[in-house]
Write a structure and sequence with these properties.
mainly alpha, 2 helices, flat
């Protein structure tokens, strides 16, 4: 989600898609489910 020298920030939607796509492979399934629920269902946002 963060800006990198070689590319601009992708945003929360792209980050959630990435972790969902790699659920059970690179990321724990329960952690992914909790993260997606937090951002999509409970509308969590990072503080500025």
């Amino acid at each position: 989600m963060s800006h990198r020298p070689y590319r601009p920030a992708l945003g929360i939607d792209a980050a959630l898609e990435e972790i969902t796509r790699n659920k059970g492979k690179a990321f724990d399934t329960q952690v992914v489910d909790a993260c997606v629920k937090l951002f999509r269902e409970q509308h969590y946002v990072f503080a500025d």
